[in-house]
Amino acid sequence: MHELKNADQKYAQLDEFIDALPEKDGALIMTLHKAQEIFGYLPAEVQNHVAHKLQIPASKVYGVVTFYSFFTTKPKGRFKINVCMGTACFVRDSQKVLDEITKELQIKVGENTPDGLFSLDALRCVGACGLAPVISVNGKVYGRVKPEDVRNIVEEHMSMGGNDDE
Amino acid sequence: MINITINNNPFQVEDGSTILDAAKKAGVHIPTLCHLDMHDFKMVNRVGTCRVCMVEVEGRRNLIPACSTVVAEGMVIRTNTIRAIKARRTIVELLLSNHPKDCLICERNQNCELQSLAAELGIREVKYQGYQSHHKKDTSSYSLIRNAEKCILCRRCETMCNEVQTVGVYSAVNRGFETVIGTAFDLPMIETACTFCGQCVSVCPTGALTLVDNTAEVWAAIYDPEKYVIVQTAPAIRAALGEVFQMPVGSRVTGKMTAALRRLGFDLVCDTDFAADLTIMEEANELLDRLKNNGTLPILTSCCPAWVKFIEHQFPDLLDIPSTCKSPHEMFGAIAKTHYAQKLGIDPEKIVVVSVMPCLAKKYEAARPELAYGKNSAYVDYVISTRELGSMIREAGITFADLPDEDFDSIMGESTGASVIFGTTGGVIEAALRTAVYWLTGEKLDKIDFEELRGMQGIRSATIDVQGTPVRIGIAHGLGNARALLEAVRGGEKYHAIEIMACPGGCVGGGGQPYHGNNIEIIKQRADALYQEDKDKSIRRSHENTEIQRLYEEFLETPGSHKAHELLHTTYTKREKI
Q: Which position among A115, B93, B307, B418 has the lowest Cβ density within 10 Å, counted as fewest Cβ atoms?
C-alpha cells in the first residue's frame, strides 16, 4: 500500500466535512466524493475511516466504491488524462486518440505510468460535444484532438514535471 | 380489507399485503427464489432481485414481481398465464446459464431451492450459453465456505448478516455481471468480523454458502486403531436430527442418536449436556460471587461462540462482563483429556474428542488458541454439525428410524433437565437460575419452570424474586437483538444476568442444523421438544447431577476452585470492527 502523504491533515479535513453533515444517513456517496477529492483516491484505510465515522459496515462502503466507476481505490498519476468515449467523441474517432495515448505512454486504460506522472482513463461525455473529440488533463479540456496532437500534449506536461500545482 | 381477484376468483385480503402474501392466503402458489419472510425474526428479504415471482396484473403493461408489490383495491391478478409462466422459465434459464451444473456433487444436492425451482418449472435444457463467471472459493475459515460461482445474488445472506445479525460482513461488490456478494476489501472471511454463526448458510438457497465439512477427519479418527474417539452431542441435536431422516419435526431422537453414534464406531458416546450441567455449576457460582462481592454486573452467558466473537469485535469495552466460563463442549474436552483420561488410563494424546454441534461457530471456537493445551493439542479435536452427523449415519447405511433407543455411556453421560434446555433461547439462564436460586436461598424451591423466561420474542426480560431480592434477567437471541440489549446495558440499564444466543431461536435454529426451509415453526417445535425432554427428566437441576457431584469430589473440589479456573474458564480478546 502507498503511504498517504500528510495523512493527519487530510483526515482532519475529511472529519471536518463529515462532522458538519446535517444528516449522516444517506451521506455515504457525498462523503466518498469528498474523500477522493482530498486523498486523490480511496485506499482501504480511508474507506474504513469513512465507515467508522458514518457508523456503517466497511463492506457497505466498499460495495459502493466498487459499484461506481468514478471512485478509484488506486492512486492516480500526477496528470490524470481522461479520454471522452461518449457518442459524439466516439463517432469523431476518439478511439484513435485513445490508442495513440496508449502507445505513447505504454499504459492501458486504468493504469499509471511507472514514474507516476500519468494515469489514463476513459469516460462518457464531459459535456463539450461541440469540441469532439475531447480529452482532459487534470480537468483542463483539449478539443478537436487528433492522434498526431497526442505527443505534444504529453510532452507539454512532461516538461511541467514535478512543478504541477497539485 | 381490500377486494382483489386472483386467477378469476375473488378474495378479500388485508390492506398492505403483497400479492405474494395475498396469493398464499388464497391458496395460490407463486414460485419464489430470492424472497424470504421469517417475520418473527425480523428476517424479511424482499429485494425483488430474482424476478421469479412475476405475475400479470390487469391494466399493467409489464409483468410485476408478486413479492414486492402491494395489492390495491380491485386488482385483477393472474399468476398462471402462459406469459407469466414463460417469463419465469426464461428467468430461471438465465440464472442457470451462469450456474455450475455440478448438482450431483454439490453439498446442496436435493436440498437446493434453485434445483427445486428448475424441477418445478420443468426446465430440461439451458438455452442460453453465455459467459460463466469465475471466482475463487473462500475457504479461509474453519466454519463456512463461500463459493460465489453458485451465488444467484438473492441477497438473503446480506439481509441476514446486516439487518438481523447487524454484523455487516457482506455487501454486493462491483457491478453488472461482475457483481459478487463479498466482504470489505475482498478480505478472506477469517479476517473479517464474521461471527461464524452460520445463519447466512441457513438462508442461502443454493450451494454458494456451505459449511466446512469435517466428516472425513472424523471417519479417519474412528478407523485409526491408535485413537480412542469420544463423541459428545449438544442438546439441540436430539431435537432436530430426526428431520434428516424424514421423521416428524420436533421428534426427540436422543436414544436413536446414541445408538447410531455407537454403530458409527465411536469408542465412548457421551453427552455435552453433562458439560452443560458443569457449566451451570461454574456460571451460577460466578454469578453468586459477583452478587455477593459487588462484582461487575450483569454477568453475560458465554456458551455461544458466535456471540463471544461478536462482543469481542463490536463491544471491546465490555469484555469484563461475560462469564469467564468456557462453553460446555470445551469444558467437556478439558475434563475428558485430563481427569477422565487418567481414570480410563488412556494417554490424552491418543484421545480424540468429537463434538456434534448445531453450530458452525463451534468449528471456529475449537481452533481458538487459548482453548488449546499445547501448540498442536486442542481439547476438542473436531466439530461436526447436525447435518454432517446425518450424512455420516446415511453413509454408514444405518436405518436411523428403526434403531433401538440406547443410553449414553455412564461416564460424562448423565445430565439433568436443566442442561437439555441449553439448546433454546432462555434455556441457559433458566438452568442457571434453578441452581443459583437454590444456592442463594439454601432451600429446594418447588418452582423449577421459569415460564417467564421462555418464548421466541427477540428481547425478553423478567424479574425473579429470590426471597425478597429481585434479580433482573435479560435474554436476547439473534445478534441484532443482542446489540440492542448491550447498548441498553452500556447506557446504564440494570440487569443482574443476561443470556445471549447468536442464532434466532437459540441453538435449535443454529447454522449447523438441518435446513429449516425458513420456517420458524420448525425452530419452535424443536424448542418444545427440548422443554418436553426437560420435563421428563427425573433430575432437573444441574447441581443434583450425581456424575457432576462426583467430578467435584474426585477432581475439581469446588466450583470456582483453582483447578476449575485452570480447565474450565477462559479469556477474551479485543478485536477489530471490520
A: A115
